[in-house]
Amino acid sequence: MPPLLLFDGPCALCNRLLRILQSVDRRGELQYASLQSETAEQLGQQFGFDPQNQQSLVLVLQGETLFGHRAVKALPALLGLARLHPYRLMLGLYSLLPDAWQAGLYRFVARNRYKWFGRTEVCELPGRQPH
User: Which are the contacts of 17, defined by CB distance < 8 A and separation ≥ 6?
Assistant: First the structure.
């Protein structure tokens, strides 16, 4: 199974992130599905999480699930971003924080994402969706 990123479909921040990821994923490595999808429901049963109760991104990678800040940290290497790519540099700085701070910062943004960035009426799911 190719790497799959599950995201909150109505979240405007998540949709912006997906557009960025799609633009930098030159190898076309990553597939996407919303947490509200049937795919997420099936994966939730398989990996033991409830996609309806997720406040975070979920990355399904080589039979493993990474949640929240751990999913974000795995993306640069997965997408093959060059060391000097701006997004890799930004995530590199984030990675310098202690793990507990990364998790806290991620949760803080996740809790406030609708207030700060809004919601979309329709999920703007980009290409490379799972079959």
Answer: 7, 57
Encode the chain (131 residues) as per-residue pLDDT tens digits: 789 999 998 899 998 888 888 888 877 888 999 999 999 999 999 999 999 877 789 999 988 999 999 998 888 777 776 555 677 677 778 878 899 999 999 999 999 999 999 998 766 665 555 54
67: β partners: 58
Distance CA 124, CA 12 (A): 9
CB of 103 within 8 A of CB of 69?
yes
Residue 77, amino acid: A
pTM: 0.84
DSSP 8-state symbol, 37: S
Residue 56 near residue 106, CB atoms below 8 Å: yes
